Amino acid sequence: MTICTNKNMNPDDPVCLCFHVTRRKVVNFIRVEKPRRPSQLSECFGAGTGCGWCRPYLERILEDSNRAIQQPASPASSADQDSATENSPPPVIEMTAQQYRKARSAYVRKGGGTPPPGATPIDPIDQSSDQ
Ligand code: FES
């Protein structure tokens, strides 16, 4: 099953642009560490502890992953559930990586949060639409 389209982020695109944490890293962290609260995702390379833009997406990834664990296709043992989670497609963020980065830049510009040193810089203001 293919989940990546040109309209969606790739699993290796960063979800947390402040700490360069990809969706794949977050999904694997959830699979291995089984966090119970979204705040525990900060233990995954600091995800969500910078500007805060990615927190709703991290929460959604956790919710989607937990849903996949709780609703296996058929009754299964614990080992089967781990296998099902491992084989489940990672949740999709319905925007391109470029759209995601631009939305985060707009969020930061509006004072939503401050990226830490070393974070992916915010995009320059696109003035082409003003002309
Ligand atoms: S993008 Fe994740 S905290 Fe800024």
The overall average pLDDT, rounded, is 82
Number of strands: 2
Query: What is the helix/strand order?
Result: EEHHHH
Globally, the shape reads: globular
Uncertain ranges: 76-90
Give a quick account of the main beta sheet: strands, pairing sense, barrel closure: 2 strands, antiparallel
Indicate the proportion of strand residues: under 5%
Oligomeric state of this protein: single chain
Instruction: Give the termini distance in whole angstroms.
Output: 43 Å
Domains (count): 1
**Helix vs. strand class:** mainly alpha
Task: Tell me the strand order in the biggest sheet.
Answer: 1-2
Rg calc: 16 Å
- Work out the helix count: 4
| Helix share, percent | 25-40%
Ligand list: FE2/S2 (inorganic) cluster
How would you sum up this structure, described in words?
This protein is mainly α and 131 residues long. A hairpin with a 4-residue loop joins strand 1 and strand 2. Helix content is 38%, strand content 4%. The N and C termini lie far apart (43 Å). It has a two-stranded antiparallel sheet with strand order 1-2. The protein contains 4 helices and 2 strands; from the N terminus they run ββαααα. It has one domain. The site of FE2/S2 (inorganic) cluster has 12 residues, from loops.
